[in-house]
Specification:
- This protein is about 90% helix and about 0% strand.
- The protein is an all-alpha fold.
- Helix 2 crosses helix 3.
- The N and C termini lie far apart (about 185 Å).
- About 0% of the residues are buried.
């Protein structure tokens, strides 16, 4: 047992390696408080200011993005409105062009009809003039032939123009009645 007693006394005299000495605890506590005060007074305000700046910058960027999105939506609405107006205007222009085309076609038809009527009237007038000229020419030729034939049948020459013309006119009148 004496051995056990010596071991116990030695154990009480030797410090525990897990528990630091009292002067280490005091100096460590003092340095901890100094570092805590420096962090609290210097580093924490700077960190807070930097975080506030970042937060403000992020909020500003979000506001700018919201404003840009709002402007983009307004621009899209404006573009859509202008596109609708352009389509409406294009439809009106197409409709006006169709109406103008119909008017032009109608005017061209009227002009063509008038020109055709004028040409037809001129042709009828020319035909009538040529018919009259042919009638006069045939009348004189038929008259001459009739006088020659009558002179051959009668055996004498019909030289009296007034009489010859009266005979030819009577002959042609008889032919017209025969039709």
């Amino acid at each position: 047992m004496p051995n056990a007693l010596v071991t116990n006394l030695a154990a009480e005299a030797a410090p525990n390696p897990l528990i630091p000495a009292w002067y280490d605890i005091i100096w460590s506590g003092l340095w901890f408080i100094i570092i805590l005060i420096v962090v609290w007074k210097v580093a924490l305000p700077r960190l807070t200011a930097m975080l506030d700046e970042r937060s403000a910058a992020i909020e500003g960027n979000i506001a700018k993005a919201d404003e840009a999105q709002k402007q983009a939506e307004e621009a899209l609405e404006e573009y859509t409105r202008q596109l609708a107006e352009a389509r409406t205007e294009a439809g009106e222009i197409r409709e006006a062009a169709r109406e103008d085309g119909k008017k032009i076609v109608a005017e061209a038809k009227d002009a063509a009809s008038a020109e055709a009527g004028r040409i037809t009237a001129a042709a009828h007038t020319q035909i009538e003039a040529e018919r009259q000229a042919a009638f006069v020419s045939l009348r004189s030729e038929v008259g001459t032939l009739a006088i020659d034939l009558a002179g051959n049948v009668v055996g004498e020459t019909l030289s009296d123009d007034a009489r010859a013309t009266a005979v030819v006119d009577r002959f042609l009148a008889d032919l017209e009645k025969a039709k």
